[in-house]
Amino acid sequence: MDLIAADRPNVILIITDDQGYGDFGATGNDIIETPNLDELASRSASMSTFYVSPVCSPTRACLMTGRYNYRTRCIDTFVGRSMMEPNEITIAEVLAANGYRNGLFGKWHLGDCYPMRPQDQGFHEVLMHKGGGLGQPSDPRENNRRYTDPILFHNGEQVNTKGYCTDVYFDAALNFIETEVSNGNSFFTYIATNAPHGPFHDVPEDLLAHYQQKTMGSLIVGKRNEQQRKAEVDRLARIAAMITNVDQNVGRLFAKLDELDVRDNTLVIFIDDNGPNTRRYVGDFRGNKSMVYDGGVRSPCWLHWPNRLQAGVVRHELSAHIDLLPTIADACNVRVPRWLKLDGQSFLPLLEGKRRNWNRHLVLQAHRGNEPVRYHNFMLRHGDWKLLHSSGFG
User: Is the previous residue joined to 300 through a cis bond, with omega within 30 degrees of 0?
Assistant: First the structure.
């Protein structure tokens, strides 16, 4: 029997764009300032061996469906290859069928036309940019590659907005949360920033000035000549400004949850979508976005839920984006249709100490083209063993 709505948790899933594993104080970065995310990490249970795809759309297809992206037809990031089959069932559809109100704010990147838009796939409230990001060909021409005061799409209608894009997404998300709490509804809020994805010309000016006074060079990986190093230092300062802006908004989010007195019964999950968009610090790993080395496919996975999960619990079992749908469904005590063939499984019992056996393998692959090529840019992990062919994304 389903729990009554008042006892069900709310769910907030936050995913950033091109923020690598090493872009947090909690993962060893002493340059980029992320105090709110570091606090989130310290107050969360976590899956320490959590994988995502090498690039963005495949990750989003996997987390939305609990299935490998190749099953969904989402195999790339552009020219029609980033769209799922319309009959794929998303976590939003599963939750909507059980009385949840669902909102998406930011990046969808799984189809901009009916019937593949988020509002066609279980979301009731949507504020999004089109395609892979602001400043890309899907952007309205008059947006002029702006991250500040961007032209976005509210439930399918083009709208002008005011403010830096990440602030705009969080503003809308907080308004959605406040409305649903006021109405007594359980909610699923998906906040998918397009920061710190490029272009990097339009970033919060105060934070950029702050980072331009810091020594960014220690984050650079690989050799650079003097001119290249100067350009990379500038780019890293811009990326850091975008990341700290995300962090500030995460702080605003928790302040709102406290104001509404719903923090304890809200499951907040934080991940990123792939490795970093430049060769920079990734902790103990190697690689970056588009690579199947761990620097390209490892992500934090922090789960904050005071009513049920103990802060500081760390599980090292192999987990991934495909596990988010079954984990969220498990947390919300809703049933996934039996006929839906999932590749993922709930890791909630691991975090609660209710399950010990977790024998599974994980396969990840992403590259350009119309169909998968055997072993091209591919990895297989089982236990402590990893087989990979890092043959490049092209």
Answer: no
Q: Please, what is the Cα angle at 286 between 269 and 14, to 5 degrees? A: 15
Give the domain CATH number at 208.
Answer: 3.40.720.10
Task: Say how many domains are in the chain.
Answer: 1
Cα(350)–Cα(5) distance, rounded to whole angstroms?
A: 25
How high does pLDDT run on average in the chain?
A: 95
At 15, give phi and psi (nearest 5°): -135, 130
Q: pTM (2 decimals)?
A: 0.97
Range of the domain at 106: 5-357
In the chain, the N- to C-terminal Cα span, in Å, equals: 49
239 contacts: CB under 8 Å, gap ≥ 6: 23, 196, 200, 277, 278
Residue 205 has φ and ψ, to the nearest 5°, of -65, -40
Domain-located, residue 388: no
Closest CA to 239 of 270, 263, 260, 208: 208
**Percent of the chain residues past pLDDT 70, beyond the cut:** 98
Residue 140 lies in a domain: yes
Does residue 372 lie in a domain region? no
Is there a domain that residue 227 lies in? yes
